[in-house]
Amino acid sequence: MRHEKRISNLSLLAVLAVVGFSTIQVGASNLFYSTAEAANTGAHSTKKQVAATEGNASFYAGEFHGRKTANGETFNANQLTAAHPSLPFGTWVKVTNLSNGKDVVVRINDRGPFIKGRIIDLSGSAAKRIGIMQTGIVQVKLEAIKLLPPAFISG
């Protein structure tokens, strides 16, 4: 019985190693893919990169801190997260403020925004990093990041 358990554990480790190596082989030459592509295909995509999405970004008000997000996490305004209407939960997105060039990488963990004309709601921490706290709304460019592990994200 103990021998079978070791073989089972080794099999699981082998599968995890194969999955890990396959994600590393994504390569640095094409880390980004369009947000439309991410919404249609999830994290794994072999399609050619198309234009990034541009639109208005806003940020969550403080009253949402501590509430549950759509994926079941507790919202923390101090983390680099965001709400998007259709990207898969867990997608990492580079958000660039088009008025000042500052950018931040956030993880999608909620749905929204629910106001016409807005394409993403940022956490307070993410909004501060790209300088939109004064205006509240700013024109941004979104680029979904392909399979980049959290260890590679600064923040």
Give the topology:
Elements: H1 2-24, E1 32-33, H2 35-41, E2 53-59, E3 81-83, E4 92-97, E5 103-110, E6 118-122, H3 124-130, E7 138-145
Parallel strand pairs: 2-6, 3-5
Antiparallel strand pairs: 1-7, 2-7, 3-6, 4-5, 4-7
What is the helix tally?
3
Please name the CATH architecture.
Answer: Beta Barrel
Q: Give the neighbour order of strands across the main sheet.
A: 2-6-3-5-4-7
Count of distinct strands: 7
Strand content: 25-35%
Amino- and carboxy-terminal Cα gap = 46 Å
Topology order in helix (H) and strand (E) letters: HEHEEEEEHE
Quickly give the structural class: alpha+beta
Tags for this model:
155 residues; alpha+beta; Barwin-like endoglucanases; six-stranded mixed β-barrel
Briefly, what is this?
The protein is an alpha+beta fold and 155 residues long. Helix content is 24%, strand content 25%.
Task: Describe the model.
By secondary structure, the protein is an alpha+beta fold. It has one domain: RlpA-like domain (Barwin-like endoglucanases), CATH 2.40.40. It has 3 helices and 7 strands. It has a 6-stranded mixed beta barrel. The chain is globular, with a radius of gyration of 18 Å. About 21% of the residues have low confidence.
